[in-house]
Design a protein that fits this description.
There is one protein chain. With 388 residues, this protein is mostly helical. The protein folds into two domains: 233 residues, no CATH class; 137 residues, no CATH class. It has 19 helices and four strands. Helix 3 packs across helix 6, helix 8 packs across helix 9 and helix 18 runs antiparallel to helix 19. The longest helix is centred in the first third of the chain and has 28 residues.
Amino acid sequence: MFNNFPVWAYVLVVLGLTHVTIASVTIFLHRHQTHRALELHPAASHFFRLWLWLTTGIVSKEWVAIHRKHHARVETETDPHSPQRKGLLKVLLEGSELYREEAKNQETLDKYGFQTPDDFLERKLYTPFSFLGILVMMAVNLFLFGFIGLSIWAIQMAWIPVFAAGVINGLGHWWGYRNFESADASRNIIPIGIFIGGEELHNNHHAFASSARFSSKWYEVDLGWSYISLMQRLGLAKVKKLAPKLAYNSQKQGVDLDTVSAVITNRLHIMSDYARDVVKQVYEEEKAKAGETSKYLFKRGKRWLIRHEALMDGAAKQGLDDLLAQSHSLAVVYEYRQRLQSLWQEKTASQERLLEALQGWCQQAEETGITALEEFAQTMRSYSLVPA
């Protein structure tokens, strides 16, 4: 039917078809089903299910269970696809095999596969005949495009195993930049969002897993969120959860319970700001003053100062200790970073105890004589859950 297209037209067809697939994965399977960050109209929900059946053979319960387990057990031996544990090449090249292996684990499905589709179509068609849809898609492609339809179909079948099972699960925990120092190795790997619909903002997602929007900085483009916003206007989606944002109240005179709630809720934002406004500033000042004997420590020192302890090996910890021994100011800044982080790790502490601890932290930080730390402590006093 459409077997006389120029080459560029077939390229556009492939990009269009595969993009619908990745949009279905990120909107339906990931943000809607797994993390419940949005609700979908039944018509939109079923379209995504049908399309995924035709183009991937993915069973919703299996995908959701495996991804929830990944978040619950991230970077541990039982993480289904951690490159930190299994090796980058293993996840890049055999990501789909790791998925299929974990899908056979009934314990995983029972524990993490709750509240997934369980209607007549799911029980009688999509789950028991998951590969039938793939064959239907091949037949449709052959009918529409002739023999070249087989090539289009092959690319469609490889798209999710390569970009989702390989690139996102592999590179997304290995290479790229981090906005937030979460306890896992997640990274943002832009700019390839046109291919994977916002899933490349993996560090942002791990920091705020239940957020329907993955972008955090102005320059980060989350195409999945763009589609969700459009669907909201059309009445096809309703956003339930978004990542918190820091609010400031310049009228506040001191640290109160509202400040404590704002700090706990926005802890990853605050640690990111602390790394940028305090650690990096003091680090550059100390690096400029460093003698020849300690300059080698500063080559990697900034990374050690802001990295989460769970991601540091023995060599990195020793390098950090050596660096802190060379600089009193950095040692103080690092100590206050650890003390601030410990506030939200006190899970059994009362609000009054946390208030007292945060008040003490701010007061003592303002008395250190380190300008960047003093200014940060003063800014902390204006944090609020509700904008002024």
